[in-house]
Amino acid sequence: GAVVSQHPSRVICKSGTSVKIECRSLDFQATTMFWYRQFPKQSLMLMATSNEGSKATYEQGVEKDKFLINHASLTLSTLTVTSAHPEDSSFYICSARSSGNTDEQYFGPGTRLTVT
Amino acid sequence: QKEVEQNSGPLSVPEGAIASLNCTYSDRGSQSFFWYRQYSGKSPELIMSIYSNGDKEDGRFTAQLNKASQYVSLLIRDSQPSDSATYLCAVWASDTDKLIFGTGTRLQVFP
Questions:
Q1: Burial class (CB in 10 A: 0-12, 13-18, 19+), A69
Q2: For residue A2, what is the nearest residue in chain B, using CA coordinates?
Q3: In a 10 Å sphere around its CB, with 0-12 CB exposed, 13-18 middle and 19+ buried, how is residue A37 labelled?
Q4: Chain A residues with CB inside 8 Å of B99's CB?
Q5: Upstream peptide bond of A8 is cis (omega within 30 degrees of 0)
Q6: For the CA atoms of B54, B57, B60, B61, what is the dihedral angle to 10 degrees?
Q7: SS3 annotation, A41-101
Q8: Predicted confidence band of residue A41 (pLDDT cuts 50, 70, 90)
Q9: What long-range pairs does A58-65 form, CB within 8 A, spacing at least 24?
Q10: Positive or negative, the Cα torsion across B2, B44, B49, A72?
Q11: Span A59-88, pLDDT tens digits
């Protein structure tokens, strides 16, 4: 099956700093990547949709200036959490949709962010 | 607003039994349907996709789709304790080009 990687898997940062998370599709080209956040015992929450070469589309209530998304190539998207605060601590998961004909979406292993 | 409904569970079944997970969706225009498995603390893993009415089998898993009833199900035969996880039903919303997830059903398989 298609493989999506994320880096780092865990990160601890201090309040006010920025953190960058990378998402890569390893064996397929992903025209579209998605960024989700999941708090403990809660559902996945879609934050934004990222298309290669264009600006990301953010879901209602997600601050685009705080969560910067760049989809520079067909295999790489990055999420930067700027000026992180403790309430940004969460499990961030990316997914990638193949550029083929199916709508299948494959998830990365996630990044656990803790802001102290 | 498009919705995907699942019973949150937990659904408890004995080892070796068939686990039946159900999902209904509101968007009649949806054409693509998926089941993901999510272990605690991990990201979702795609286990089945189905696009046509009827059954689709893959190993111990069978997905069933009934578009007229707007109903998708997942059957897990010979359930194992390692199947214990949360199962997420997802429906592709073609007009917004994104997956709509249900809240998931927690499955517990006891020895």
A1: buried
A2: B46
A3: buried
A4: 34, 46, 103, 105
A5: yes
A6: -50
A7: CCCCEEEEEEECCCCCEECCCCCCCCEEEEEEECCEEEEEECCCCHHHCEEEEEEEEECCC
A8: confident
A9: none
A10: positive
A11: 999 999 999 999 888 899 999 999 999 999
The C-alpha atoms of residue B56 and residue B37 are separated, in whole angstroms, by 17
pLDDT in tens, A7-33: 999 999 999 999 999 999 998 888 899
- In degrees to the nearest 10, what's the CA dihedral of B32, A4, B74, B91? -30
Tokens of A30: 């992903």
What spatial distance separates the first Cα and last Cα of chain A, rounded to whole Å?
A: 37
C-alpha of B65 from chain center: 11
Measured in angstroms, the CA of A70 and the nearest CA of chain B are apart by 18
Count of CA atoms in the C-beta half-sphere (13 A) of A80? 10
Interface test with A, best of B5, B43, B91, B94 (most A CBs within 10 A): B43
**B12-42 pLDDT, tens digit each:** 999 999 999 999 999 999 999 999 999 999 9
Predicted confidence (pLDDT) per residue in B74-90, tens digit: 999 999 999 999 999 99
Structure token digits, residue B1: 């607003």
Sequential DSSP letters for B42-60: S--EEEEEE-SSEEEEETT
Amino acid A2: pLDDT: 87
Check if the beta carbon of residue A31 is closer than 8 Å to that of residue A51. yes
